[in-house]
Amino acid sequence: MLANKTVIISGASRGIGRATALLLAQNGANVVATARTAEDLKALEAEHTNIVGVAGDVANEADMVAVVKTALHRFGRLDVVINNAGYGIFKNVDEISVDEWDSLMATNVKGTFLLTKAALPTLKAQKSGHVVVVASDVAKRTFAGGSLYTASKYAQEAFMGALRKEVRPMGIKVSGVYTGLVDSHFHDKGHGHETSQNWLKEQDVAESMLFILSRPAHVVIDEFMVHPLEQEY
Ligand SMILES: NC(=O)c1ccc[n+]([C@@H]2O[C@H](COP(=O)([O-])OP(=O)(O)OC[C@H]3O[C@@H](n4cnc5c(N)ncnc54)[C@H](OP(=O)(O)O)[C@@H]3O)[C@@H](O)[C@H]2O)c1
């Protein structure tokens, strides 16, 4: 169902984004993969002919405009935007520096705004499209040490809620992905550590994304929550 669809995905140099870019390309989509690390994007491009990498920072408006332009130039259309780039800082409130606050919010929240804003004129003009945000289960709950990260994920949740009301009448879908623990490069102990062996795999989230994107035109998955069985919820 993804043949001839063009998908932009941020945070595609590693982790959930990379696995999703590959799976969607293997299922027929043309994929524009973006992240800051150009070498990693080159390695990803080498894995599938349907993938084009564009290096950029989601917090930079010009970079996100360039990503959308590349999608339209290379593939002639744009169908799906996946806002996936993000990272976490886990500290008590008084230990968080102002720089840490500003840069995390710039990536997780402003980045979601900038990539979505760059894509919306095209989606609105064609009266179709799909905006996906990889939030987190902590877009809906908090924990000690999570003030900065959960605030960024709650902000993504609020952004999606309002956006959904704006664009649904135009035939544009908005889907939130609320994942629990994933064994990616996100966590301090790194990918593949023994403590994360029963967590979700990057591929599990990629397959969730494929499911969300391959529903028939009249169906929208507004919210998709997924956890490893061993994680309390
Ligand atoms: N892993 C989990 O347990 C978990 C749980 C819930 C939600 N999530 C969410 O899932 C998303 C993906 O995370 P992940 O687990 O796949 O982590 P990851 O393996 O660390 O990958 C993060 C990706 O984001 C990119 N990125 C970071 N800052 C960026 C920026 N300023 N501009 C552009 N790209 C940027 C990184 O690429 P570059 O460094 O090359 O830019 C990388 O490709 C995040 O939004 C995260 O909050 C993760």
Description:
The protein has 233 residues and is of the alpha/beta class. It has a single domain (6-226), classed as Rossmann fold (3-Layer(aba) Sandwich), CATH 3.40.50. It has helices at residues 15-26, 38-45, 61-75, 98-126, 147-167, 202-213, and strands spanning 6-10, 30-35, 51-55, 80-83, 129-134, 172-179, 223-226. The chain has a seven-stranded parallel β-sheet, sandwiched between helices. Helix 2 (38-45) links the parallel strand 2 and strand 3 (51-55). Helix 3 (61-75) packs parallel to helix 4 (98-126) and helix 4 packs parallel to helix 5. It is globular and about 45 Å long.
Number of strands: 7
Strand order of the largest sheet: 3-2-1-4-5-6-7
- Architecture in CATH? 3-Layer(aba) Sandwich
Q: Percent of residues in beta strands?
A: 15-25%
Largest sheet composition:
7 strands, parallel
- Please give the radius of gyration in angstroms: 17 Å
CATH class: Alpha Beta
Poorly predicted spans: none
As for the number of domains, it is 1
CATH evolutionary superfamily: NAD(P)-binding Rossmann-like Domain
N- and C-termini, Cα separation = 33 Å
- Derived structural class: alpha/beta
Index terms:
about 230 residues; alpha/beta; Rossmann fold; 7-stranded parallel β-sheet; 6 helices; 7 strands
Topology, please?
Blueprint: E1 6-10, H1 15-26, E2 30-35, H2 38-45, E3 51-55, H3 61-75, E4 80-83, H4 98-126, E5 129-134, H5 147-167, E6 172-179, H6 202-213, E7 223-226
Parallel strand pairs: 1-2, 1-4, 2-3, 4-5, 5-6, 6-7
Bound molecules: NADP nicotinamide-adenine-dinucleotide phosphate.
NADP nicotinamide-adenine-dinucleotide phosphate binds next to helix 1 and helix 4.
